[in-house]
Amino acid sequence: MAINDEGEIRELLSQPRRIAVVGASPNPARASNEVLAFLIRQGHDVIAVNPGHAGKTIHGAPVVATLADVEPPAEIVDIFRNSADAGAAVDEAIVHGAKAVWLQIGVIDREAARRANDAGLAVVMDRCPKIEIPRLGLLR
Prior knowledge:
alpha/beta, 7 strands
């Protein structure tokens, strides 16, 4: 497996998936809010992860406190955390049983990406599905 493998990105985004958005915000000015709404419009089953808003919804998606609260497990864990905190979220995704971790634009942690890769997860780093889906012609 490689980081940002075009074939893996296409496969991850080509069909509806269960996606946990770690760091999702109810604030419409935040990128995580916009991307979460876009993923829902694309037909994905989205769960927001934000301990400060657990029990609420964002664009109709349930908000849970931790990735461990996402049942059944998410296939993709989309991480909106700063690079310094991304490694912990990646490690939680590995334990969670995700098939892939997606680190958003500007979120770079090569060591965490290596750990995810070594655990058999697909890794996308420093990219955004809201950009990748139209780029790949996968809009629904």
